[in-house]
From TrEMBL:
Keywords: Signal
A Pfam family assignment: SBP_bac_6
Keyword Transcription in annotation: no
GO process annotations (BP): thiamine transport
Gene3D superfamilies given in the database record: Periplasmic binding protein-like II (3.40.190.10)
Transmembrane domains' residue ranges: none
GO molecular function annotations of the record: thiamine binding; thiamine pyrophosphate binding
The protein's name in its UniProt record: Extracellular solute-binding protein
Entry annotated with the keyword Methyltransferase: no
GO CC annotations, alphabetized: outer membrane-bounded periplasmic space
Signal peptide residue numbers: 1-24
Length: 367
């Protein structure tokens, strides 16, 4: 088991100023009333297939009767931050209320004054290592990077990063984002560096850039933002993807084409994503209620249903709240034994190297 090492409202003033931590049923009722009065929640970068977000969103709408305005589902973490910056004075439909971003983006967004604090009622069950003490951001789920392989096209399924350099994988390997700003892609570069024997952080970033330069020079790298659809079409037969995206994509395709999901033998890197509320959220109470939904037992199990390890996984397991059928659908525990969880400092150092040197070292413009 993983262990961490991180509309104007006509309401009363009390309802408008809901506490930063919901500590009682009465306070929760006040929050629900305030959120319903706002009537809308605006999200960004939440594909329905990612961590079962489709069901997470629909259950929120059904439970509270609040509309969800979904912006740019395929955006990356950097795009989410820019969406807040670009809409600071905008209370219209293009201003996101909440963001779900890579671990390193949480502290940086707080430092730039882009988030506001809120502690959910289950705050104490979120590990301290992955939450801001003031409540500006907190971990939501995690997974490991894996290879999603279209076995209609790729007959010899790669088992490790070094395999991807073989001539048989020409024009086959793609990332699920642009390493200049997408958290998943940035961590993929680091994972390749770890597989080459480099230490986590800047060394892994440097080694990972050299690896992708070699992969590109060999003609194996496909410089497009890959998804389950591009894999199924044969444009990107091998996609470096979060395990939960790959597994949910496999379910979605229903063996058309057949897919194999492989956690590599080395360079297994785990990534924690975090939630935050925009400092400029047009619907702050709906945003807080959204957080309550996500961090409730119900919300956490909906993420697990989408193959994501929810951040409260240990607490739920300890209290016997995880159905066995959900556990049985996950990869075996042994697949995660070598997983490396980079610290915030290591991620920040690696991100700086990769964003600065990707174009010059790798020479591939991911579209």
């Amino acid at each position: 088991m993983f262990k961490f090492t991180g509309k104007i409202l006509s309401l009363t003033a009390a309802a408008l100023m809901v506490s930063t931590a919901v500590s009682s049923a009465q306070n929760l009722d006040e929050l629900i009333a305030a959120a319903k009065a706002e009537g809308t929640l605006t999200t960004v970068a939440l594909p329905h297939s990612w961590c079962n977000y489709g069901e997470v969103i629909s259950s929120f709408k059904e439970k509270y009767g609040i509309e969800v305005n979904e912006l740019n589902p395929d955006a990356g973490s950097a795009d989410e931050i820019e969406a807040i910056k670009a809409n600071k004075g905008n209370t219209g439909p293009q201003a996101p209320d909440v963001i779900d971003v890579g671990y390193a983006f949480g502290p940086s967004a707080k430092a730039e004054g882009l988030t506001q604090p809120y502690k959910v009622s289950t705050w104490d069950t979120i590990p301290n290592e992955v939450k801001d003490p003031e409540g500006h951001w907190y971990g939501d789920y995690y997974g490991v990077l894996a290879f999603m392989v279209n076995t209609d096209i790729v007959k010899n399924v790669p088992k490790d990063w070094s395999d991807l350099l073989k001539p048989e994988y020409a024009n086959s390997v793609a990332l699920s984002g642009n390493p200049l700003g997408d958290n998943q892609a940035i961590l993929a570069v680091q994972a390749a560096g770890l597989a080459a024997g480099a230490a986590s952080g800047a060394p892994a970033a440097e080694a990972g850039l050299k690896y992708f330069a070699e992969l590109n020079k060999a003609g194996n790298f496909v410089p497009v933002t890959a998804r389950t659809g591009t894999l199924a079409q044969g444009a990107t037969p091998i996609v470096v993807y979060w395990d939960y995206n790959a597994l949910s994509g496999k379910d979605e395709l229903k063996d058309n084409p057949p897919v194999e999901v492989v956690v590599p033998a080395s360079g297994v890197i785990a990534g924690v994503y975090v939630q935050a509320i925009s400092a400029y959220a047009p619907h702050p109470n709906a945003a807080k209620l959204w957080m309550e939904h996500l961090y409730s037992d119900e919300g956490q199990l909906l993420w697990l249903k989408g193959y994501c390890h929810p951040i409260r996984f240990n607490d739920l397991a300890k209290n016997g709240k995880i159905p066995q059928d959900l556990l049985d659908k996950m990869p075996p525990a042994a697949a995660y034994e070598k997983a490396v969880f980079p610290t915030l400092e290591e991620q920040a150092a690696a991100k700086e190297v990769i964003s600065k040197d990707w174009s010059g070292v790798v020479g591939a413009n991911v579209q």
